[in-house]
Amino acid sequence: MAYLFQCLYNSAPLGSTASGIRIIMSDTETRDFIRQIIHEDLESGKHDEIVTRFPPEPNGYLHIGHVMSICLNFGVTVETSGRTFLRFDDTNPAREDEEFVNAIERDVRWLGFDWQDRLTHASDYFAQIYAAAESLIEQGLAYVESLSAEEMREYRGTLTTPGKNSPYRDRSVEENMDLFRRMRAGEFADGEHVLRAKIDMESPNMNLRDPALYRIRHVSHQNTGDTWCIYPMYDFAHTMSDAFEGITHSLCTLEFRDHRPLYNWFLEQLQPEHLPRQIEFSRLNLAFTITSKRKLKALIDDGVVSSWTDPRMPTIAGMRRRGYPPAALREFVKRAGVTRKDKLIEMGMLENCIRESLGDSVERRMAVLRPLKVVLTNYPEDQVEQMQGMNHPNNPDRGTRSLPFSRELWIERDDFMEDAPRKFFRLQPGGDVRLRSAYIISCDEVIKNDAGEVIELRCSYDPDTRSGTGSSERKVKGTIHWVSAAHAIDAEVRLYDRLFTVVNPNLADDYREVLNNASLETVQAKLEPALATLDQDTTVQFERLGYFRPDSEDDTANARVFNRVVTLRDSWAKLEKQAMQGM
Ligand code: ATP
Ligand code: MG
Questions:
Q1: Which of 144, 168, 305, 339 could form a disulfide with 310 if both were Cys (CB 3.0 to 4.6 A apart)?
Q2: pLDDT one-digit tens code per residue, 363-384
Q3: Per the structure, how many domains does the chain have?
């Protein structure tokens, strides 16, 4: 499959806020092909009001691909004062799965959309769909099939050979009606009969070769209980539900393109009051990610990730737990655009949306992820000074916070190098560095353990260089972050990387072979004391390290657990450029 590898690093900056839904469409130029159709239909008076639906099957959690469909279906009616239904596709009788239903509702709301009183189920229409089936029988357009499933497959033909008519195809209307009513009454076993549309067994479009409309299944349904033992097939149920709800534009992904002739056949034969129009757009695929509920479930079942809400998962719930703002996801799908081309979108583009959305608002804090002890040999043993750290570098109105400073500190292991190259401006033996919001220190001595590893640095501080108030004009090239050892709080910090090693894991035969085994790194970090009281739903920037947020499931007041939302800079550009060249 040929993909358009999309790169939009330089697109317009984010204008949306976390609270409000942004009106995306300001002029004709920015309208995608679906919005153009919708506007023409309003202008020509074909419709007074746009009505759409988002129709998830509650068999898993929603993912980044669904974000695109949600933002499109709800977005067009926010923009045109129309209505959108959240319709659960429950044509398959299955075990009650309240977990998925609740998660879907929560996720759509969190993205910023509201279906108001328009929460429906395909099963709400079972009686009407049944009546439509009887109407097709009456018109001689549907018949009861009594071939076995295997025989039906044989009669169906292949993509290159036509199918042939079933011996049961010419049953009379009366016989068909009698058999169908008895199917409904429970007189037959599963698979004994099927109701089929009578269209064309020789059609080059397989979907038109007398597709099944109803099958027998003696199974209780999560919403209708034991009322039915026959259930409508998806294509029939979906078309009829669209018609009953007065959907004007039925927006779906490209794999339904070949189903459109069938969709239209149902509408032509049954002539419902409202005639919806199906329009297809391409699926959103994200580089290094899979977007299929079935495959995502396999990751959980195989223990690769902890659950549907694992912060590495491309599920809405996983991305929320990771700390992605909803506005950033809306902006991302807007930039990806609604088109008919298959596309694989760069991870860098998603992360840029997240950085842009967080960058201006979040406060700065200090944290050391891989601690190395520093002892300031000339600093009084019992002294503690309160340094003032700016909460936001470009915005003094955001105030400051106290950073206790003392004789023993933690710095980042990476900020020290024994044999440093010329351009290394952090700490090295005999070298100087500024501790952010504090003093300039010099490294006098390196302490190692028996294995030769550096375990501590003996340094001295320059009392005249205190940030903001120091009398010295002394300047150094590097500034690093730190926390006071006596005041630091311990935390587990989880650093995430992509789940797969290849750009399009959807194409792999077995996803296990392309897993990135280093997708989660857990470190025991030291945090500045102000982070002890950070609210759980607040994202901060750990200075020089990235954006971090308390984990909504595992973080507690006594044991803090933070997730890295995103790094400060784009770490994908190089990787994705290489991957693109290899495609
Ligand atoms: P999956 O393959 O993950 O199970 P699905 O298409 O079966 O996805 P549904 O719950 O049936 O999942 O999808 C609800 C709606 O979301 C459908 O209209 C579908 O077209 C749309 N959708 C699903 N995946 C994507 C995607 N990757 N990009 C855009 N829209 C999508
Ligand atoms: Mg589906």
A1: 305
A2: 999 999 999 999 999 999 999 9
A3: 4
Question: In CATH, what number is assigned to the domain containing residue 217?
Answer: 3.90.800.10
Q: Crossing angle for the helix pair 347-359 and 326-336, nearest 10 degrees?
A: 140
**CA proximity to 125, closest of 73, 177, 84, 88:** 88
Whole-angstrom Cα distance, residue 292 to residue 302?
16
57 noted as active-site residue:
yes
Set 118, 169, 283, 544: catalytic member:
283
58 touches ligand 1 (CB under 6 Å) = no
pLDDT at 56: 96
Cα of 65 from ligand 1 centre, angstroms: 7
> Whole-angstrom Cα distance, residue 255 to residue 335?
22
Q: Is 293 a catalytic residue?
A: yes
Residue nearest to atom 25 of ligand 1 (CA): 65
User: Catalytic site residue 283?
Assistant: yes
Structure confidence at residue 570 (pLDDT): 73
242 and 260 share one domain = yes
Across 283-307, average pLDDT: 95
CATH label of the domain that carries residue 515: 2.40.240.10
Last residue of a domain, one of 455, 481, 507: 481
Q: Which atom of ligand 1 is nearest the CA belonging to 283?
A: 28
- Closest atom of ligand 1 to CA, residue 256: 20
pLDDT of residue 359: 79
The reported pTM is 0.91
The structure tokens listed for 259 are 């189903």
Question: Which domain covers residue 350, as residue numbers?
Answer: 4-122+235-354
- Packing angle, helices 64-79 and 326-336, rounded to 10: 90
Cα 170 to ligand 2 centre (Å): 33
Least confident of 22-36, 174-188, 238-252, 518-532: 22-36
* DSSP sequence for 237-251: HHHHHHHHHT-SEEE
For ligand 1, say whether the CB of 53 is within 6 Å of any of its atoms. no
Residues 229 and 244 in one domain: no
Ligand 1 probe mutation, 6, 34, 69, 340, most atoms within 8 A of CB:
69
Structural domain includes residue 361: no
Residue 359 belongs to some domain of the structure: no
Same domain, 431 and 460: yes
Q: Are residues 219 and 142 in the same domain?
A: yes
State the pLDDT confidence band at 360, using cuts at 50, 70 and 90: confident
Give the span between the Cα atoms of 296 and 434, in whole angstroms. Answer: 46
